[in-house]
Amino acid sequence: MARTRATPTDPAAPVLARMSTLDRFLPVWIILAMVAGLALGRFVPDVRDWLEAVKIDGTSLPIAAGLLAMMYPVLAKVRYEEIGHLARDRRMMWLSLVLNWVVGPALMFALAWAFLPDEPAYRTGLIVVGLARCIAMVLIWNDLARGDREAAALLVAVNSIFQIAAYALLGTFYLKILPGWLGWQTQDVDFSMWGITKAVLIFLGIPLAAGYLTRRIGIRRVGAERYEQRFLPRIGPIALYGLLFTIVVMFALQGETITGEPLTVARIALPLLAYFALMWTISFWASRRAGLGYDRTATVAFTAAGNNFELAIAVAIGMWGVTSGQALAGVVGPLIEVPVLVALVYVALWLRRRMLAAPTTT
């Protein structure tokens, strides 16, 4: 009997086979972009002058364009029109908000200080990553893990909008107020609440508005099916190109620091690795304790564990510059997040099989 070939959208296909080529090899593309950036910085010493030739409010125009390109396609995927339906399961909504905006930032704050007490720039960069909550990329992990697709889209929409109001406030709290209460040294953390707010408004507010308008106008003109199946796949790679361009630029400008301190990336990676594993485990456990079924448990876990590293990179560059340690910490984020969350998809599917095989009690 001939075997049928699994397609990327086939639920029976292996996890990696159900990912697009771009998503499947994202860590590889990031590593290649890092290498290309280091080579560019070494052999084209004038790259800094070229990038800084045109600036907007202190940010290089090419870099700003790359940051906006990272955000727009993923925000055009969010189903804003279905946010009102989330009220059907208030338990899931409140659990997601608590995990995303209380547990997640607090956990990253603790890990950043535990692993990098002597590296304020990298520590701050990690905290900035922890404050940037789930973005549309978590829809990929949720689909692969057989989570609730509609619930995931709604949670991403709610958290994307919530970030506009909450990010700067939480940034001030975790970067300045809380360390001050604990008596920890924070004089080396130079930032302003307005600076963070401005970066969020520019690099999240603009693509969020553009994504919302694109979706609304696109569905009205071509219909939901054509918009989802034809338009979104065409603009999707733009986000990856923007990310890779930003990484090339950052490593071109930071090559001397990176090659001179080879353990830097490893020190940043360890707390990130611990964060993604712990955050997912805590969220999965809390969702099961709250009585959610597997599909919504997986959805809450992945939307809580996934971070908006695009926004974190944008805020770090906007606040501290492209050559800052904060920005470098943001770039390491997706390098660690992608393989860890792919591994957690396998864990989720294993738990799903156990939960479905468990006998029901009457």
From TrEMBL:
Membrane topology label: Multi-pass membrane protein
Transmembrane segments: 25-43, 63-80, 92-115, 121-141, 153-175, 195-214, 235-253, 265-286, 298-321, 327-351
Alphabetical UniProt keywords: Arsenical resistance, Cell membrane, Membrane, Transmembrane, Transmembrane helix, Transport
One Pfam match: SBF
InterPro entries cross-referenced by the UniProt entry: Arsenical-R_Acr3, BilAc:Na_symport/Acr3, Na+/solute_symporter_sf
Cellular component annotations (GO), alphabetically ordered: plasma membrane
GO biological process per UniProt: response to arsenic-containing substance
Record flagged with keyword Secreted: no
GO MF term list: antimonite transmembrane transporter activity; antiporter activity; arsenite transmembrane transporter activity
Compartment(s) where it occurs, according to its Swiss-Prot or TrEMBL record: Cell membrane
NCBIfam families linked: acr3
Family affiliation: Belongs to the arsenical resistance-3 (ACR3) (TC 2.A.59) family.
Name listed for the protein in its UniProt record: Arsenite transporter, ACR3 family
Lineage, uppermost ranks: Bacteria, Bacillati, Actinomycetota, Actinomycetes, Streptosporangiales
